[in-house]
Design a protein that fits this description.
Layout lengths: L1 H11 L5 H16 L3 E3 L7 H13 L7 H12 L4 E2 L1 H6 L2 H11 L19
Antiparallel strand pairs: 1-2
Helix pairs in contact: 3-4, 4-6
Length: about 120
């Protein structure tokens, strides 16, 4: 039990930059606008890829997450949170559609600043 508590504390120490949460929000929003998705991920579903990305970063021995961490867990985090249209089911699976979304949503800073990856500097 103590290991679980320590793991939870360590996870809470993994820094999440606003730019990464903006990327996760963009992915979730894209599920609501995709033509083959009947029901997209809810706003609360944004927590899943961010939380899993924190765990992924921790496994990679980092105390911050990158967009690549979000990408690495997005299918697992979002594939079960969407419902495809009949046409969408004929074209592929939920996981395949999330992969398609990952390819179509750019990872970029807001405000027209340079693109990721950004320096891993804590504020």
């Amino acid at each position: 039990m103590e290991e679980v508590v320590l793991s939870q504390k360590a996870l809470g120490q993994v820094y999440v930059d606003r730019l990464v949460t903006d990327y996760a929000i963009s992915l979730v929003n894209a599920t609501r606008n995709h033509p083959t998705i009947h029901l997209g991920a809810s706003p609360r579903a944004t927590l899943a890829p961010v939380g899993l990305a924190q765990a992924h970063a921790l496994i990679e021995n980092r105390d911050f997450i990158l967009p690549d961490d979000v990408k690495a867990v997005a299918v697992a985090a979002l594939g079960r949170r969407i419902m495809l249209t009949a046409e969408g089911r004929a074209d592929g699976t939920e996981d395949q559609i999330v992969e398609e979304i990952l390819e179509s949503v750019p990872v970029e800073r807001t405000g027209g600043l340079e693109r990721f990856p950004f320096p891993s500097v804590r504020p």
